[in-house]
Amino acid sequence: MQLGDRQKLILALVIRDYIENAQPVGSHHLVEYYSLDFSPATVRNEMVSLTEVGYLRQPHISAGRVPTEEGYRYFVRQLMGQTDLPVQTKRTITHQFYQAGHDVDQWMRLAASILAHQSQGASLVTAPHPEEARFKHLELIATLGRQVLMVLVLTGGEVRQQMLALAEPVSQEQLSTAASTLNQHCQGLNSSALAALSAQLDALEQDVLKLIVEEMEHSRAVLSGEVYRDGLTNVLAEPEFAELGVARRALRVFEERAFLEDLLNRTILTTNVGGVQVLIGGEDTWEELRECSMVLGRYGVPGLATGTVGVLGPIRMAYGRTISTVRFVAGLLSDMVVEMNLE
Amino acid sequence: MQLGDRQKLILALVIRDYIENAQPVGSHHLVEYYSLDFSPATVRNEMVSLTEVGYLRQPHISAGRVPTEEGYRYFVRQLMGQTDLPVQTKRTITHQFYQAGHDVDQWMRLAASILAHQSQGASLVTAPHPEEARFKHLELIATLGRQVLMVLVLTGGEVRQQMLALAEPVSQEQLSTAASTLNQHCQGLNSSALAALSAQLDALEQDVLKLIVEEMEHSRAVLSGEVYRDGLTNVLAEPEFAELGVARRALRVFEERAFLEDLLNRTILTTNVGGVQVLIGGEDTWEELRECSMVLGRYGVPGLATGTVGVLGPIRMAYGRTISTVRFVAGLLSDMVVEMNLE
DNA sequence: TCTTAGCACTCTCGGGTTGAGAGTGCTAAA
DNA sequence: TTTAGCACTCTCAACCCGAGAGTGCTAAGA
Q: Which of A102, A151, A237 has the CB atom closest to B151's CB atom?
């Protein structure tokens, strides 16, 4: 069913008002506050239609209207339009990133902090990592006794380190030789190609190679590295999380890696870099997210390295501002990935 | 003032009962439930004394008694005694660590998870790092263009990595030469000794050395690496965090690095390895912790590398179980540090 | 046909009241 | 020194009630 212009206007106003005040919106308030040139009775009539198509509902018979999840979805898709961050805000954010220097860790933390602050929600950032890891460089470093530190650099600039315990002590020279052999043979190969190499290597090199393959396989998961979070307490400030159970369920989402992994696997992988996905009320799929919305974005360079940024908040979320912030921060992080690899 | 034996018994029972049920404890209930061989009236008389010395209080005149913070402190110091984890529990935990292999990251995550689960609180673990970092080994790895990855191994097995952008491109050979020069000169030196070396080195080496010193200085902070957390939602389940504001304040503690840093600096540094410190109700020092208690432990090998484990919960916390869990996990992590360095 | 004024109706919410129950402190007797 | 008995205080849940908000319906007006 197609909505009339007046219905769209009323729906949009109800949603904006509700997002701001967290209270059911009545016909009288709407006309008064937004100086509409038709009467509360007319608004009521339109509200009846909007309620019938499922975009609005009444908490109880003598209350105003509240948007349904479907209402929010329609709003985000059709009514909201593209909003953009104020130039001044953009400039401030860019400046902060500029000051963070070249440290990926710093960038991630900063991104999480900015997202949380701007959206007044809880934020989530994963470090960039390649969709398919390719070998770039290897170092083997003797630490003490039979403990050896392996540092593996993958295309995209991702660095992984892993301790390995050898059967017997090996000198740094032997390790360096092994590393340089492997560096020669493995350049640019992906994990399956590496696995095929095994035959032509000696025992030590085979051991190391096995570990490399393992690491690279592991790094294919969406959630291989650290997950940066911030603003968890922001969501607790929202009235919809006043009830203990609701707050717990929402925070659990952020705590459990397994859940996040599932979530990201099933949503963000289908999103293009630069694109933003909005999950409203768990989308009938994630029970734990029933009372929340998430805005997820993907950044990076496809084929090289990508990562995820996201915000969790109540369904009554300022979608416009949040989406544009997520998009903007994703853009900056994409620049970082480019810079890291090209400069 | 010295408490009589019966007063000690009653205080201990009130605290244990309150910890379990979160409800004011009345004289009648106490006698009934614990089959005491004196009457409720006697208990009431003793309770009056305990209230006068400040170990108990009444929420209101017709309610039972509740421990005060002083009461908890007395309990933890004098009444509780050394409890120990059940052998079976210890075995299970040890087994889990055994299965985690040699990955420090895995160990930290596991430690946080076990602490959270056993204590039903929120847990906190910092990676082991040296009190005074000494140089052990350096690698320089060309990634792309002028971007160079520096991998720095410190005594104690701590590994730090940092990107540096050089003024102009440098080949891997040049980097390797520089690294091996530095490895020869810097072996076992601390940051101030390193800073003094500068004169005898060429431009590239000086650049790198500056960065090394910076990293090592930075790594002296208590909170240099990642902070592992778990069980945040556990604390939300406790009735004392039902109020929004209380829950926010408690979680903020865990979110803000600055706060944690201050906290650890001022408490844990005065604790010996293997020792456990109990903060009850913020100890009049930390406003944010007023409604919480923390149990903090230190692990590692003094002079080599140490780290912190801790649990946050309501003041009404099962101190016995929590303290023994913290102590046990700290012990396991200390073993890990030893093993990493000696094997 | 669309809009709107008027009105009866419904439901929530906050305030006030009340009675049951819990637990105390005091007193006096054992 | 301990304890039974008792009067007393206070909380808590239930209940009632009236004010207020906002609706849907109807009928009149544009």
A: A151
pTM: 0.84
User: Minimal Cα distance from A226: which residue of B?
Assistant: B226
Q: Is the pLDDT of residue A343 over 60?
A: no
Three state DSSP letters for B142-194: EEECCEEEEEEEECCCCEEEEEEECCCCCCHHHHHHHHHHHHHHHCCCEHHHH
Phi, psi of B48 (to 5 degrees): -60, -45
CA distance B233 to chain A (A): 5
Listed residue (B97, B32, B11) closest to B335, CA to CA: B97
Length of chain B: 343
Which nucleotide is nearest to A63 if distance is taken from CA to C1'?
D22
| Residue A306, both tokens | 């990508």
Cα(A270)–Cα(B109) distance, integer angstroms? 30
H-helix or E-strand containing A332?
Answer: helix A319-342
* Distance measured from the CA of protein residue A33 to the C1' of nucleotide D30, in angstroms: 26
Lookup: nucleotide whose C1' is closest to A40 CA? C4
Q: Kind and range of the H or E element at A17?
A: helix A5-21
Cβ burial of A229 (10 Å; 0-12, 13-18, 19+) is: buried
Nearest by CB to B145, from A163, A231, A342: name it: A342
* pLDDT, tens digit (0-9, with 9 covering 90-100), for B248-281: 888 888 888 888 888 888 888 778 888 899 999 9
Token pair 């294919």: residue: A220
Which residues from B are below 8 Å from A when comparing CB atoms?
A: 102-104, 136-137, 139, 141-147, 149, 151, 153, 157, 159, 161-165, 226, 230-233, 236-237, 241-242, 244, 247-248, 251-252, 255, 340-343
Task: Tell me which residue in B143, B164, B342 faces A145 most closely, judged by beta carbons.
Answer: B342
- Kindly state the DSSP code that residue B269 receives in the 8-state scheme: G
Give the residue ranges with Cβ < 7 A from strand D.
Answer: A 24, 26-29, 40-41, 44, 47-48, 51, 58, 61-65; B 37-39, 41-42, 45, 60-63
Cα–Cα distance measured from residue B265 to residue A28, given in angstroms and rounded to the nearest whole number: 57
Distance CA A277, CA B315 (A): 42
- Are B102 and A153 within 8 A, CB to CB? no
Q: How confident is the model at residue A244 (pLDDT cuts 50, 70, 90)?
A: confident
d(CA A89, CA A118): 9
Does the structure show a pLDDT above 60 at B343? no
Coil/strand/helix, residue B305: strand
Bigger pLDDT: A299 vs B282:
A299
